[in-house]
Here is the input.
Amino acid sequence: MPCPLGGEGSAAFQVREIRVRAEASHDLASVHEVLVQAFPSEAEAKLVERLRGHTDPQISLVAENEAGQVVGHILFTPVEISSSSENATAMGLAPMAVLPTFQRQGIGSALVEAGLSACLAAGAPVVVVLGHPSYYPRFGFKLAWDVGLFYESPGANPAFMVQELEPGALRGRSGEVRYHAAFNSV
Here is the structure.
């Protein structure tokens, strides 16, 4: 499924002089550079390369400045909620990165907000994230364990959070959240 923000004439989000849009094939090297500069190793860049085109749906967005330079990237891929009664799918936010010289300017927030909107438009009612516990709650994420979801082992993990994009989407659902096998190498 293509990203709802893709294509000519599609909606784009603006924050100051930043535009968020669907990743295009000509962005691949720039996205790689953003990820390499934003993280301490190439693990996240390699993860994105392994996931690109191997999940459906996949929402990959870039933030570019007024000069057209890609300064941020965010990726959403499907995850499975595995329980004893039934399995369900959701989207997982990972990774999200902004070039260090452009951080703390609202670019990450613009990427998250645009990504959540794109997930909802793609029909994904739930998004999970394994990230900074002080950053993601501002977008409506809450502790996943509070709604019966966990990652790797049962119990509260302050970095593992969830957001229902459609209220009640998690009603009656609980269990382990499993990411694509490519995440095992990060």
